[in-house]
Amino acid sequence: DVVFQTISLDVKPKGGDSAGSKIDATTVAVSLEDAQRTMRPPGTRDHDNDKESFRAISIIPTTSELQCQESAYLPSANGSEFIDNAEAATLDRQFRLMREDLLGTVKEELHTEFKIPSHKRRRVLPDPCIVNFGMKPEPHVVVRVSIPPRLQQRIRKMKNPEASKFFDEGPGKRVLQKGTLVLLVHDASAGTAHLKTKDRDIRISAVGTIVERLNPMKIVQIPGTDPVKKIRVLEVGVSFTSESMRSITQLLPSLKDRNVGTPMIGSNGGLFNASAGIFSLAPILKALVKLDQVPMCDQTVNLNQPKLPLVAHGGKKFSDLSSTLQKAVTSDQSQQYALEEIFKSNVVLVQGPPGTGKTYIGVQMVKAMLELEKKPLSECRPLRILCLCYTNHALDSFLLDLIKAGVPKNIFIRLGSSPKIDPSIKSRCLGEVDSSVSTKFGRQENAAFGAIKRESEVLETRFKDLLKSIAEESTWGKSDSWWQIIGEWLEEHYYEEHDQLYNFYGADNDGFTRTGKDGKALKNNYLWERWFSGQGRGIFQDEKKEPTGIWECSKSERKCMVERWNQEWIQPQVDLLESTMESLQKNKEAMRSLRQGNELRVLETATIIGCTTVAAARYQGLINPTVVIVEEAGEILESHVLVNLGSSCEQLIMIGDHKQLKPKIDNYRLQKESRNGFDLNVSLFERMVIAQETGIPVIPLTVQHRMRPEISRIIRGMALYDTLEDHKSTNGRDHVSGVVNDVVFIDHQHPEMLDEATAVRISANFPSFERNSMRLELAL
Question: Strand ranges (DSSP E) for 163-201?
Answer without folding.
Answer: 180-187
